[in-house]
Specification:
Blueprint: E1 16-21, H1 24-36, E2 44-49, E3 52-60, H2 63-88, H3 94-119, E4 125-132, E5 135-140, H4 145-160, H5 210-215
Antiparallel strand pairs: 1-5, 2-5, 3-4
Helix pairs in contact: 2-3
Length: 216
């Protein structure tokens, strides 16, 4: 299997587009299908078009929030220092271990409050940054374009193939000498209360013809 030429950093050419998707997860599935079809992984790229950044605000920052987050960070730092201290001195008392934890929490809170006091005039809220795209193009180098399109076409055909219709039931063969079945007649609903009855309309259940009455 040929590995092909790898993409170079900063290269503007990422191959030819073989498929385009509105969701990144679908583009990932297409790449998995291409790799399963022996398309060299180094010749495949996912290119996002129409990139935009979305910053989601998660909450408001204050001295209390800064102190709380600093305490959590300081606790982690204190556990690390206490673990190193205990390894170095196995006979140390538990009070020293707790003291190292408290010192780490205090240092974390102090550093977080100082940082917030510096940047609070420019930014007093917490947020999470995310980069999204309008659509994602799956691109393949020219040496494997035909193989990639054939693989994606086969996968699309397999996903959209309709289910086979059920086989019709075999009719039960009639015995010799049996009369052919009579055609089904539509049932007539009985008249409702207050409805005028048509005199020419046969009564429900009156299926005997005059000929059958004479024979009787």
């Amino acid at each position: 299997m040929s590995m092909g030429a790898p993409f170079t950093a900063g290269s503007a050419e990422a191959g030819e587009t073989v498929a385009s998707f509105s969701q990144y997860e679908k583009a990932q599935k297409a790449v998995s299908a291409l790799i399963a079809a022996d398309v060299p992984a180094k010749e495949i790229a996912i290119v996002g078009q129409g990139l935009r950044s979305i910053e989601r605000v998660t909450g408001r920052l204050g001295y209390a929030t800064a102190a709380r987050s600093g305490a959590v960070n300081g606790l982690v730092l204190g556990v690390l220092f206490a673990f190193i201290f205990v390894l170095g001195t196995p006979t140390v008392a538990i009070q020293a271990f707790v003291g190292v934890l408290l010192v780490g929490i205090a240092i974390g809170m102090l550093m977080s409050i100082l940082m917030f006091s510096i940047v609070r005039r420019r930014r007093d809220f917490a947020s999470v940054m995310q980069v999204v795209a309008d659509h994602y193009d799956v691109r393949v180098m020219a040496s494997s374009v035909h193989r990639a399109r054939a693989a994606l076409g086969a996968a699309k055909t397999a996903d959209s193939a309709p289910a086979a219709p059920p086989l019709p039931a075999h009719p039960v063969p009639a015995e010799p000498g049996d009369a052919p079945p009579a055609p089904a007649r539509p049932e007539q609903a009985p008249p409702r209360y207050g409805e005028r009855i048509d005199p020419t309309r046969p009564a429900p259940g009156a299926g005997d013809t005059p000929q059958s009455a004479d024979r009787a």
